[in-house]
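Subject: sequence -> structure tokens, single chain

Hey, anyone have a minute? Need the predicted structure for the following. Not urgent.
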Amino acid sequence: MAFNWQKYDSITNPKNYVIGGGITVHLNIGLNATYPITKNLDLGAGLSFIHFSNGGFERPNRGFNIYAPSAELKYHFGERPNVRNTKSPGRLERSNDLYLMLGYGDYQMNEHELDTNYFAVAGISAIYFTQLSNAFRLGYGTDLNYWMGLTANPDGTMGQRNFDNLTVGFILQPEFVISKLTLVSGFGIYAIHLNYGNFKQTYQRLGVRFDVYENLSLGINVRSINFMLAEFLEFNMGYRFRWFK
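Reply:
Had a minute. Here:
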């Protein structure tokens, strides 16, 4: 998985750009497998998902998705590593975790994408994780977010803020753990949402998180709907409470 930020000029001729704004987000997620066919030659195949957008940070946000299958032949000039004699690490220490996360982002509304009005969205998530293997854990919980723009005026300016700005979602969150780095994914549904209604719209979370000190972590996620429309970039800080098995 890779996050790339690139600067470019979208003002000179915005029709020439697929993605609007001064920041772009590039996600490249894939699975690859190789099989040795000779002493020095491997046959490989894989499938990648590639996404370009600005993460909903600025409109217009005409991003695009690519599904890219691949095939490869890999030749080893040196001696192939003998992975069959590699010792298994065995069962590492595992835990159940209650993860609390504070998130923040800025976004523009689709119906006012050519305006310069930005709206803040902030929230808290509570997710309970069960570690199922050395590198995989599964969590379920809730996301509570307060969206300043949900009650915006018809001209795109800030409107009156009340409980209609609050959204509640329930999420299933599988994660892959590589030492202090965590690859985050999530599949949720909005239980309360002013524009989408209740239990009618799913949303997704995709990102990375890094443990900076013991149980404290920092991360960044892309929040989207329908697996293609980015809502906002979710910068987050979290803390986990652990119960070792």
